[in-house]
Amino acid sequence: MALIKGSVARNLNENNVTQAVIERFANTPDARLKVIMNALTRHLHEFAREVNLTEEEWYEGIKFLTATGHKCTDTRQEFILLSDTIGLSQLVCAQSNKRDQEATEQTVFGPFHIENAPKLANGADISGKRKGDPCYVNALIKSVADKPIANAQVDIWQADAEGFYDVQDPNWTPAKMELRAAFTSDARGAVTFRTIKPCAYPIPTDGPVGAMLKATNRHPMRPAHIHFMVHAPGFEKLITHIFVEGDEYLDSDAVFGVRSSCIGNYVRHAEGEPTPDGKKSTVPFYTLDYTFGMQPV
Amino acid sequence: MALIKGSVARNLNENNVTQAVIERFANTPDARLKVIMNALTRHLHEFAREVNLTEEEWYEGIKFLTATGHKCTDTRQEFILLSDTIGLSQLVCAQSNKRDQEATEQTVFGPFHIENAPKLANGADISGKRKGDPCYVNALIKSVADKPIANAQVDIWQADAEGFYDVQDPNWTPAKMELRAAFTSDARGAVTFRTIKPCAYPIPTDGPVGAMLKATNRHPMRPAHIHFMVHAPGFEKLITHIFVEGDEYLDSDAVFGVRSSCIGNYVRHAEGEPTPDGKKSTVPFYTLDYTFGMQPV
């Protein structure tokens, strides 16, 4: 029953306006949408009341959100970046992916995945000849019960040694996918490829999110990682990173996404040592062995 | 002192991530910005936890905000429209403008004001020859102590009889300002002009905000009104509307902006009656007399 009507509806104040908005959502056909709109209204209003938000501050917020929207393109998602940097992405990720202790943990998706990455055979080189230390990855896709999973679809993406994903190049086109690929696990559950060792890098700072980090005296760095997204029938989709042991930003990831179970041991080898593909490297290189534990549906 | 460090920082869950984000804002130089970012983080996180927001719902939200940003142009402010329709604008307006009971109340600014409207002399016709019932406005700008205020700067803007502001015409340019003007009050505190009687109209529904209203089964209508913004030295800036007594949407304004003290009596006159400018009208017309009470600074 509507409580806000007549002269009250014609004189809403900062307190009863909340009830008025909630009543306006009363006829929302989708019950879940109604729950979300009601809660969003309550919490947003409570925020504005608690800080006694001024009209000038409100307008700064409007301009910030507008600039954030204008920064979004097909290859740049500034709202995801905003969500990531205020911990909302990790919050939703954590509460949405409760898994067995043996399962590899989920972390944030990030804004740089691209559909339809090149499908490559095991052993491929995804480095695009970019500068960086060669790194040979041997990923085993297994169930939490330690059984190999063949034919899992595994998307890989990562930044280069200068901290940029391919899509961040202003001249990037879908024909120029580098440091990203889609693999299929073999009978042992293995996915193997050659890449470059990932480096810590700043999230893009040339937009409103960068301005927010600067204004709040926060660094924009993410600890080095390779992204993995694994699809296997009968198992929960897994979206995660494998971080680099020893990275200086593991405790202060700008997007709060580190999982200690997802820190990999990237082992350094001297030049001249044999590489996993049976050759000899003329430069130092790294190997990463990591076993993923997939959660049954 | 940081509570979130080491292995905790590497395994943030949906609960302690909030504290981690707040700690990250600890070195914000501007104390007010720090208060705002902390409160925004807490309330936004609490919203996401309360509804147990899923990854799919989060992504719908990202897409909604992105589309809202993309809809914003120099003459369209979809984020203000969003704020208006969820009552946030009225909340901020109400808590930011506490005034004496005799003072005219503030209401929402709305997205359609334009800087540098044409400066016109009292008595001018701002209708741009648009269709609609002629309406003669006689606004008196006074202090709350009932003293006339001369030389007040008064911006006027309103929609036409079809519910559109001039800037909503896709072919609009700043050279084509209609149904908007800037007046200066005379020695009696008076601002007079000829316009058309405002009509109830829908807020723009061709964007994400319109989609939200549709999905929640809400009407997009605003009760008819003329916007006034009054600047006078020594008084608080006044931004308000004068609504139309009897309008069917006064109790359900899509943006929650009605103030019962700002409902005007638009008096109908038959054709042939003398108009305030000393002529005789060949069609029925309206007159509006309204006295504004300005709050001293």
Q: Uncertain regions of chain A: pLDDT < 50 for 5+ in a row?
A: none
Structural class of chain A: alpha/beta
From the N-terminal CA to the C-terminal CA of chain A, the straight-line distance is 42 Å
User: Which H/E pattern describes the elements of chain A?
Assistant: HHHHHHEEEEEEHEEEEEE
List the chains of the largest interface with their residue counts. Answer: A-B, 80 and 81 residues
Shape of chain A: elongated
Radius of gyration of chain A: 23 Å
**Number of strand segments of chain A:** 12
Helix content of chain A: 25-40%
CATH architecture group name of the largest domain in chain A: Sandwich
Strand content of the residues of chain A, in percent? 15-25%
Structure description:
Two copies of one chain form a homodimer. By secondary structure, chain A is an alpha/beta fold. The first copy, chain A, folds into two domains: 6-53, no CATH class; 78-294, Aromatic compound dioxygenase (Protocatechuate 3,4-Dioxygenase, subunit A). Chain A contains seven helices and twelve strands. Chain A has helices at residues 6-9, 16-24, 31-50, 55-71, 78-85, 88-96, 208-215, and strands at residues 124-125, 134-143, 153-157, 180-184, 190-196, 201-202, 221-222, 225-231, 238-244, 263-264, 266-269, 285-294. Chain A has a five-stranded mixed β-sheet with strand order 1-5-2-12-11, with no helix packed on it. A five-stranded mixed β-sheet of chain A has the order 4-3-8-9-10, with no helix packed on it. In chain A, strands 6-7 form a two-stranded antiparallel ribbon. The longest helix of chain A is centred in the N-terminal third of the chain and has 20 residues, at 31-50. The radius of gyration of chain A is 23 Å and the shape is elongated. The interface between A and B is large, with 80 and 81 residues.
